[in-house]
Automatic annotation (TrEMBL):
Assembly and oligomerization: Homodimer.
Keyword Nucleus on entry: no
Name of the protein described by the UniProt record: tRNA (guanine-N(1)-)-methyltransferase
Subcellular localization: Cytoplasm
Binding positions for S-adenosyl-L-methionine per the UniProt entry: 113, 137-142
EC numbers: 2.1.1.228
Catalytic activity entry: guanosine(37) in tRNA + S-adenosyl-L-methionine = N(1)-methylguanosine(37) in tRNA + S-adenosyl-L-homocysteine + H(+)
Purpose: Specifically methylates guanosine-37 in various tRNAs.
Species whose genome carries this gene: Microlunatus elymi
Cellular compartments per GO CC: cytosol
Family stated for the protein in its record: Belongs to the RNA methyltransferase TrmD family.
One Gene Ontology biological process: tRNA N1-guanine methylation
Stretch of the intact protein here: 1 to 246 of 393
Keyword annotations: Cytoplasm, Methyltransferase, S-adenosyl-L-methionine, Transferase, tRNA processing
C-alpha cells in the first residue's frame, strides 16, 4: 500500500517509523511518504494560510498549495487513482469498518489541516478526480490533522496481510466485523493470583466450549454496560390476541 501524508509539520508523523507500522515500512508492505505542504508554496514566507472570508476568528489554509500538492501526488484520473482522506472534526466518524474498507485500497493520501482547517474548495476540486472523504476520529477538536492521520494509518496498516504475526488476533477484537458488535471479553495472563485478584477458574479448565461460552457472556455484559449503543435494537414484541371461549 502506498501512503502519502501532507502536513505543515512532517515531523509529527515520525512515530510511524516505529513498532509494527515501522516494520511494515521496512518490509515493503507499506510505502510511506510524508510531505511538507510548504513545498508547494511560492512566496518568500512560504505562506499556507489567510484570514477567513466572511470574518471570524483564526486563519484558514489557502487552497493553492493543497491543489498543487494533490495535482503532484495524484496526477492521473480514472481507475487506480488514490483515495484522499481530509482530516476534519466535521467529517464522517472513523470506525473499524472504515479501517477494514481502507485496508483494501492501493493508495491513500492524508491531508492534515491546521488553524481553522482547509478551504472548502480543496475537497470539492479533488473530488472531481479522486474518491475524497472528510473523516473525523472523534467528537473533539485537535490542533491539527497529524494525530488523526496517525490513528487512521495505524488502524489500517495493522490489518494488511503480514503486519500482525497472528492474523486470527485481528478477527477476535472489539469492533471487528464478525464479532456481533461485541466488545472483547476480559483477558488474563500469568500469574494466576496477583494482588489478591484471581484469574477466573473456568480459564484453567481446558474446556474450550465452556471457555468460549464464558467469554461470550462476559463480552455481552461488558458491551451492555459500556457501549449499549453498539448492540442491535431488540425487535418489539409482537402483540398476541387471545380470544377467550365463552
Ligand atoms: N474549525 C474546525 C472545526 O470547528 O471543525 C476545527 C479545526 S482544528 C483546530 C484544525 C485541524 O485539526 C482540522 O483541520 C483537522 O485537520 C484536524 N482535526 C481536529 N480535530 C479533528 C478530529 N476530531 N478528527 C480529524 N481531524 C481533526
Amino acid at each position: 500500500m502506498k501512503i502519502d501524508v501532507v502536513s505543515i509539520f512532517p515531523d509529527y508523523l515520525q512515530p510511524l517509523r516505529l513498532s509494527l507500522v515501522g516494520k511494515a515500512i521496512e518490509n515493503g508492505i507499506v510505502d510511506l511518504d510524508v510531505h511538507d505542504l510548504r513545498h508547494w508554496t511560492h512566496d518568500r514566507h512560504r505562506t499556507v494560510d489567510d484570514t477567513p472570508y466572511g470574518g471570524g476568528a483564526g486563519m484558514v489554509m489557502r487552497p493553492e498549495p493543497w491543489g498543487e500538492a494533490l495535482d503532484d501526488l495524484a496526477p492521473e484520473t480514472g481507475a487506480g487513482t488514490p483515495r484522499l482522506l481530509i482530516m476534519t472534526p466535521a467529517g464522517r466518524p472513523f470506525s473499524q469498518a472504515m479501517a477494514e474498507e481502507l485496508a483494501g485500497e492501493d493508495h491513500l493520501i492524508f491531508a492534515c489541516g491546521r488553524y481553522e482547517g482547509v478551504d472548502a474548495r480543496v475537497g470539492v476540486d479533488a473530488g472531481k478526480r479522486m474518491r475524497t472523504d472528510e473523516i473525523s476520529i472523534g467528537d473533539y477538536v485537535l490542533n491539527g490533522g497529524e494525530v488523526a492521520s496517525l490513528v487512521i494509518i495505524e488502524a489500517v496498516v495493522r490489518l494488511l496481510p503480514g503486519v500482525i504475526g497472528n492474523p486470527e488476533s485481528l478477527t477476535e477484537e472489539s469492533h471487528a466485523t464478525g464479532q456481533d458488535h461485541l466488545l472483547e471479553y476480559p483477558i488474563y495472563t500469568k500469574p494466576p493470583t496477583w494482588r489478591g485478584l484471581d484469574v477466573p477458574e473456568i480459564l484453567f479448565s481446558g474446556h474450550h466450549a465452556k471457555i468460549a461460552d464464558w467469554r461470550r457472556q462476559r463480552a455481552e455484559e461488558l458491551t451492555r454496560e459500556r457501549r449499549p449503543d453498539l448492540l442491535p435494537p431488540v425487535p418489539a414484541a409482537s402483540t398476541i390476541t387471545i380470544e377467550r371461549a365463552t
